[in-house]
Amino acid sequence: MIMNVENTLGVVVRVREFDPSKDGLSVEQVESRCEVGPSGKLCLFTDLLGDPICRVRHSPAFLMLVAEIGDEIVGMIRGCIKTVTCGKKLSRNGKNNNNDTIKPLPVYTKLAYILGLRVSPSHRRMGIGLRLVKRLEEWFRESGAEYSYIATENDNDASVKLFTDKCGYSKFRTPSILVNPVYAHRVTVPKHVTIIQVGASDAELLYRRKFSTTEFFPRDIDSVLKNKLSLGTFLAVPRGSYSPESWPGSDAFLSNPPESWAVMSVWNCKEVFKLEVRGASRVRRTLARTTRIVDRVLPWLKIPSIPELFRPFGLHFIYGLGGEGPRAVKLVKALCGYAHNLAKESGCGVVATEVSSGDPLKLGIPHWKVLSCAEDLWCIKRLGEDYSDGSVGDWTKSPPGLSIFVDPREF
Hints:
Blueprint: E1 3-8, E2 11-17, H1 24-34, E3 43-47, E4 61-69, E5 72-93, E6 101-119, H2 128-142, E7 147-153, H3 157-166, E8 170-173, E9 176-181, E10 193-198, H4 200-211, H5 221-225, E11 230-238, H6 250-255, E12 261-268, E13 274-278, H7 282-297, E14 315-324, H8 328-345, E15 350-355, E16 376-382
Parallel strand pairs: 6-7, 14-15
Antiparallel strand pairs: 1-2, 2-4, 3-13, 4-5, 5-6, 7-16, 8-16, 9-15, 10-11, 11-12, 12-14
């Protein structure tokens, strides 16, 4: 068990490892106290379904710490570690200079991720959050992590100041979280598009060949694709190029791809946690209910009805979204429609994804602005001086690429 005893403002605060056999209820109570939203504003509440480490347990290495005063838990933090792409280098293949082929190869680094930092409202401004972060970073360094990063809302001043002013993190990336409601009717996938579900091995080959140099690409992509929460990988191609019956496998496909194609994978967050929108006015609730009623009565109009988001609902997360060619954006839109239908069959309320704010494929992702976040803020910190990414330099100072690979295990 990891323990740390400190004294803050005359109060003894102990930081130790979360014990699932006795801490579950206390942690839920702190989570509940921390999710009290501003009066009169819409707030999103998360139900972890009785598993406080559900959002990190599928990572290669993870840890949850709690802070307690006496016998009372007053704070918590979670962290996980994985190996990801932080840049790329050029490799020259061939027997002689005339046949040399320059190929980009990924440069990997061991990356830590901090999430779920909570401090009970009655115990804030006592340095407890800072102490939790520092202790978790000790574990990161002991485990060989080279960088640490966090994701927070751009307007969460308290969180931003804690990490940038007190913990040495710098603002790094501002991806977009795009959320689309699941309507009562199915979305029609265009007839000129064929959707093919590919197996985990084929999906791994495709991702490693085409996306392994993308920032944050997980080196253990095979573990992600084979996880029980991954519902599959789906390829969109122009009709007539390939079909589920004629699918030759990723190796042959990549040797002779169509002019345009797109790919996505789907993660079942519904089995991990549920969300609920609270703080909605009676007018908003009535409007949402009216759209559902009209949609049921006049389904052929395909009105974009608002699902029941004011009680716990599940979601599916699209990850590994990518593609090539002049029609890639339209193919991405078809894949998102397919993902909508999968979510509808599973009884989910929304479909979500997260992409780089400058990703050109973003134009093909349907979403509602009111449910989405245009700029999620990622902050990063270099944890030491000896790094495997020496050929790239300091990742924290690198310019953003067009795309990022968002690991569904951390969403």
